[in-house]
Amino acid sequence: MPEESVDTSCRLEALRRRLPVMKVDAVVISNLTNVRYLTGFTGTAGLALVTPADASFYTDFRYEAQAAEQVRPLRVSIEKRSLLRAAALQAKKRRFSVVGVETHCLTVDQKESLEKAAPGVKWVSVKQAIEKAREVKDASEIETLRTAIGITDKAFESVVARLRPGLTESEVAWKLEESLIRLGAEGKSFETIVASGARSALPHGVASAKKLQLGDLVTIDFGGKYQGYCADLTRTVCLGKSTSEQRKIYSIVRSAQLRAEERLSSGLAGKVIDKIARDYITEKGYGKEFGHGLGHGVGLNIHEGPRLSSTATGKLCAGCVVTVEPGIYIKDWGGVRIEDVAWVSDNGCEILTTALKPARLPEI
Ligand SMILES: [Mn+2]
Prior knowledge:
Blueprint: H1 9-18, E1 26-29, H2 32-39, E2 47-50, E3 55-59, H3 64-70, E4 75-78, H4 83-93, E5 98-101, H5 108-117, E6 122-125, H6 129-135, H7 139-160, H8 169-182, E7 187-188, E8 193-196, E9 217-222, E10 224-226, E11 229-230, E12 233-238, H9 244-263, H10 270-283, E13 295-297, E14 304-308, E15 321-324, E16 327-330, E17 334-337, E18 340-345, E19 348-351
């Protein structure tokens, strides 16, 4: 079993209570991340059929023992054929008339197979109801995120001190990932970004064979995963002596980030927070060089809701966990990004990442 079991009964209970409001007799949860969130199951084949009274879990032979351990309160059914079909037949047998499905992650073929297996059932979309619930983290999720982030901060501190000219970006990425594992992570949250010199102008410059050179800005964006939860940390440093231009860009990005973090609180719209950082960077003359959103939610997925961007809709809820990551990217010159993870509350936020981000661009 890859992980210890997590008590997810409250989450399942909350969904059950909402079914009448959603005007469905049951829901089929097929998105594996949502299945994990609601049931604790960490395998790659699992599906839950949830009704106001009970919940059934469908998986295959490979996960018989794991499911028995991880999803204990649910009735587990081991299927030889399609799990969706099994759930549809169950819905038919129990004469459900309206059943919710996660249409945003079903293929057209899968939707058709549901309709074919249970033509009397009306299959309706639950939109992203579970993703929305996942935005607000409970106490155990915050603890797990803290662990993932703590590991990542430590890995960064241990590797950044060892940056040297001649190391390739890939070698740096390897050291970071090795350090994550050594510190207890189960893996990385996403492809490690090490972007140096002119490549630091690439917001998603995945580590390459380029060698670090004296004078390079080096942007490192990476994270460890712990019990399924993702950390996300970005820092930019300079290898050797920095120029005044490099220090200026760093200082603008850092100030933009601090301004957004100072104001970050529940009740504010994601686009308002984005605008605080964006207006500052624009005022300094680099608005066009900050081409992405300010941040995103983070949890079981590295990118999830809520979004902090100029196109985001809705206000932030207390309990959501978001990144704050402004950047300036200047083509053929380089770039700077600084990213923290923040836990939003009614009276501000707590910055969970602790890796240093001194006022002056660090020179390694
Ligand atoms: Mn990020």
